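User: Hi! Is it possible to get a structure for several chains at once, not just one? Here's what I have:
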Amino acid sequence: MSMQQKEIFLKHLNEMNHYKQALELMTWDRHTSIPNDGLQDRLEIVGFFTEKLHQLQTSDKMVNCFEQFLSSGDSILQQAAQVCKTTYEQKTNIPKEEYKAYAMLCSESEAVWHQAKQEDNFKLFEPFLEKIVSYKQRFADYVGYESHIYDALLQEHEPGLEVKEIDEVFADLRPMLIDLLQRIKNSEAVVDANLLRVPFAIEKQKSMSLALLERIGYKLNKGRMDTSAHPYTFGINPNDVRISTYYDENDFTRSVFSAMHEGGHGLYEQNFGTDIQHTLLAEASSMGIHESQSLLWESFISKNKLFWESNRDVLKAYAPQEIQKLDLETFYRSLHQVSPSPIRLEADEVSYPLHIMIRYELEKDLISGKIKVSSLPEAWREKSAAYLGVTPSNDTEGVLQDIHWSSGDFGYFPSYALGYIYAAQLYESIDGALNMEQIYRDQNLHLVKEWLKEHIYQYGKRKTPLQLLKDTTGKGLQTDAYKTFLQDKYKGIYHL
Amino acid sequence: MSMQQKEIFLKHLNEMNHYKQALELMTWDRHTSIPNDGLQDRLEIVGFFTEKLHQLQTSDKMVNCFEQFLSSGDSILQQAAQVCKTTYEQKTNIPKEEYKAYAMLCSESEAVWHQAKQEDNFKLFEPFLEKIVSYKQRFADYVGYESHIYDALLQEHEPGLEVKEIDEVFADLRPMLIDLLQRIKNSEAVVDANLLRVPFAIEKQKSMSLALLERIGYKLNKGRMDTSAHPYTFGINPNDVRISTYYDENDFTRSVFSAMHEGGHGLYEQNFGTDIQHTLLAEASSMGIHESQSLLWESFISKNKLFWESNRDVLKAYAPQEIQKLDLETFYRSLHQVSPSPIRLEADEVSYPLHIMIRYELEKDLISGKIKVSSLPEAWREKSAAYLGVTPSNDTEGVLQDIHWSSGDFGYFPSYALGYIYAAQLYESIDGALNMEQIYRDQNLHLVKEWLKEHIYQYGKRKTPLQLLKDTTGKGLQTDAYKTFLQDKYKGIYHL
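Assistant: Yes, the chains can be modeled jointly so their relative placement is included. Here is the combined structure:
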């Protein structure tokens, strides 16, 4: 490739990058800062820039660029070309007019879902969901797949993974989770989350989260923490990665563990390699890998007993007396009360993956035509009873609980569960490579960050999820580490 | 004009508008939110979007559009075409390469100015300023002018006003201001700003400002108030107009009157007519008119004694005891201590216009070649002594105090003084049209906002400054109202 061709390609990549950064800043602003009446104009401008980006992603110039660099020998440019090609195909394999009609349907459908949920009236939402499912089926056909139609939808979020692998790991996990849940239910151990639900000034919760974020290596010169209705990470570029959390004055665990969770996402985004900045490779390998990074810091590290032993000084500096007077063991156990709820967003660590399975199985069967939309509410209740041991009292608490299907989001829920599995495998490797006890004791968690930077963060999209796993753990997707983690942890907490 | 041509033009206007909104959001973000290390990437993206906007502003399509609509009969489109034409000429009359060289010089020069100011070393800055002045002279020649070379630079900020008019009003004001300052100096009246300089919690200052902003009609559903190093108004669009202020815990007057000042700018931007939204006409008529709107609310209304009588409840709700115990007269007088300083940014209401005159006269003479850059420091000291009665003790306090010349900003300082004159004329008209005493008493200041909306705000760029004055006051630019305002006010305060 000539220097000139390379420059043209890099310039084109950078141009797309500029639009992406502007759009991400607007997303951050919409979640944290925009005045109410500004929303309508903002939607217009976001639409305009999205269209501009789309033009670049699907331009002849783009095709020309990626075709030239797909086998260029320069590994970064080659991988960037591959990302461009994938994006190009995603954007062009669906006829434009059809996609537009679908997008309009989704925006109408979201409003209908809101109403249906409010009125507990699934029938209202049913015809919309039917249409969405049929669009998704056609889109999957346009994209193409080899063994299962749902694979086509999975690729956008978890490239390289297919239904048969996910079915396999979920089939392996499901009985173990159901059994663990049952044993916890039967346990007479007292684990009381209410001990932590005491008034805790929001400003102090904020300072506490910031202090802990600093300990894990999240940099405030390259980021900030705001408040928004839902916790979120906004990666504008690696030097500007903003996270948000939310506050409940009577439950500091919400804000602090949200901050740790988003901090985990934030660490990933702050530490993409400098060699891939300004290309489209400075993005997470997949949604599941992104989630593994947040869960690693939230569930595996900041909910570890040693973490709180090591950060007792932070608790001392900010927490109210009622919390400070709890001994470490009680504090730790209180963080881990398990009580299955029909609502995914209220789920504990043990029930959560089961919620994901319910949704995954149903949406897979919807897309493959195995079940009909009309039988969803009943199927949801059955699975909820079978997996969680709770039956939603109505559809608002059941099949209507989440917005995702109404906006056409199919195929990414499995990533949430995959995130736990990846995280467990990675934590096992970290534990083997580093002396974690020592690291907690010496407040050296930034060493974990450095390890992750070396093995995960720096590569961005240069490695697929399975490549990352193989290169860091020597294994493929395996549930062992995750099962051991959950069983050991809750065995201790619930005296099983 | 065919419907199709109209649509093309409106689409083109809207497209420019989208880039402007994105850039304004990035400016707001840079002043209030961006993490430190994010600045460099941000500059790149701002440069990219500025270039995109520039391409639209100077495209053949643009020329084609405005030429078709300059005499279209549809007054809004005709005026939008005129704005496009003016922008086109501003952007194209200077050869691109020359402008680029000049922009690079300015960015280098700003850094040198910082160093020169820090080291009190004008000689360091001198060669840069010489080059900038010579660029500005050439640019003025490219733009063209009739009577005075400085007129060419004035047009960008104060369209329709020329040196001869400004010289005339300044010549009229100068002796009156110098005389007033002298009489205040000789007065034995006690006016002590220190009475207001007591600890005042920043959160309470903020609440107080927000309460007062609400009273003047600034809408928080279309805006927000943030903190930034310098107070600022960010008009993204009329439904999203953000202001910022700054806080001094020991001097609430800084934050509150900054908020009122920016609130005045904000009211203007929130109330452009809906018929000009999405065109380029939804901008201030001129910089001086924009400033008149902030000064009207800051200096004429929120520093009025009746304003504080009427808003005593706000003071009661937020101010510390030391301030609440002051009687209204003392409180009001303390807001108006006059003590000339060599520094413009510390100036009181009476000295401020004299600072503007010093700079205006010097920059006018620089551009016309009447004085040389090398003689600036001496000329500055002389004028400062003659007008303000204070001599800066060094160049850091004198000619080097402001950044503006180092960034090539010539021709807009007069707008600050014109803002006062416009504001005085407008306040006189309002006082004639509305019963101001009653309005203060009934907390009905939103009626003033409505009057301004009807006579000023809604028109945006559809009327020039002189047109606005003529249509609302029946007069041209006149100093009478301003002189009367200052003389009457300070006669009372200083017992002259």
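The mean pLDDT of chain A is 95. Residues 122-496 of chain A form a domain with the Neurolysin; domain 3 fold (CATH 1.10.1370.30).

User: Great, thank you!
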